[in-house]
Amino acid sequence: MKINVIGLGYIGLPTALMFASHGVDVVGTDYNQKVVKTLQKGQVTFEEKGLKELYQKAMENGIEFTDKYISTDTYIISVPTPYDVESKKIDASYVNNAVKSVMDICPKGAVVIIESTVSPGTVDKFIRPVVKEYGFTIGKDIHLVHAPERILPGNMIYELKHNSRTIGADEKEIGEYVKKLYQSFCEGEIAVTSIRTAEMTKVVENTFRDINIAFANELMRICRSDNMDVYEIIKIANMHPRVNILQPGPGVGGHCISVDPWFLVGDYPSLANIIWQARKINDSQPEFVLKRISEIMEENDIADLSRVGLYGLTYKENVDDTRESPTLQMLNCMKEHLATGIKVYDPYIKEDIVKNQYHDFDLFINDIDMLVIMVSHNEIKEKIKYLENKIILDTKNIVESAYKL
Question: How far is it, in rounded angstroms, from Cα 392 to Cα 121?
Answer without folding.
Answer: 46
